[in-house]
Design brief:
With about 150 residues, this protein is α+β, with helices and mostly antiparallel strands. It has one domain: Aminopeptidase. Helix content is about 30%, strand content about 30%. It has four helices and seven strands, in the order E-H-H-E-E-E-H-E-H-E-E. It has a seven-stranded mixed beta sheet with strand order 1-2-3-4-5-7-6, sandwiched between helices. Helix 3 links the parallel strand 4 and strand 5. Helix 1 crosses helix 2. The termini are far apart. One of its GO terms (cellular component) is cytoplasm.
């Protein structure tokens, strides 16, 4: 089945919150209101859809001012039934394309034990630049900070 990636809509946010609970048990999953706040603040959010079912989501924030933006990946989540099928890759590539339009370097945090995500990020030009001890709450899991340099040409 083909998955299409498009801007996330307000009516998709309840499903995002449902997926958060499945994907991040033992952590502090985002609520529907958290997603609403991110959209209201101007975040760039994408959804991955298999027919009409939201199977993944991703969000990016641009910080700074024109000509000196930095981008920060706030979240990427994929329904467990759709993991390993290229959905996360498609979402990440959509976020990176947006950051590349404004020539922004991109930063993110990822759990140190999430080998699949780390591998995906490395394949897209990210490098580990630091570690945040006890970053995730309430579990206290560590996170790597990763960065991808700004892209100034195609």
């Amino acid at each position: 089945m083909t998955v299409r990636v498009q801007p996330l809509r307000r009516e998709d946010l309840g499903r995002c919150a449902e997926l958060e609970k499945v994907l991040f048990p033992g952590e502090d999953p985002w609520s529907e209101q958290s997603f609403r706040s991110e959209l209201a603040a101007g975040g760039y959010y994408l959804g991955a859809f298999a027919e009409d079912l939201l199977v993944g989501y991703a969000g990016l924030a641009l910080l700074g001012r024109p000509g000196a933006y930095e981008a920060e990946v706030h979240t990427i989540g994929v329904d467990p039934r759709w993991q390993g099928k290229g959905v996360g890759k498609a979402l990440l590539e959509g976020l990176l394309a947006h950051a590349d339009q404004v020539h922004a370097p991109v930063f993110l945090e990822v759990r140190t034990d999430n080998a699949a995500a780390i591998g995906l990020y490395e394949k897209h030009g990210f490098e580990q630049i630091g570690i945040r001890r006890r970053y995730y709450r309430p579990s206290g899991a560590d996170a790597y900070t990763m960065a991808r340099p700004r892209r100034t040409s195609d």
